[in-house]
Amino acid sequence: MSVVTVSPKFQVVIPKNVREAMGIISGQKVQMLTYCNRIELIPIKPMSEMKGILKGIDTEVPRDKDRI
What we know:
Blueprint: H1 16-22, E1 30-35, E2 38-43, H2 47-50
Antiparallel strand pairs: 1-2
């Protein structure tokens, strides 16, 4: 686990090992949210990188007989 210090301007530096593990690069945007008394940073990836992410997913949806 990495520990960071909050600067007087409320800034933090993401440790190198975390940046490399998550593939975060300089200038990239991340979404920040709070959940269960913690802060989570979620890297935002461009749509071009999302191509094929759902490949192989089962698209069959069971339907009731009274539904079209």
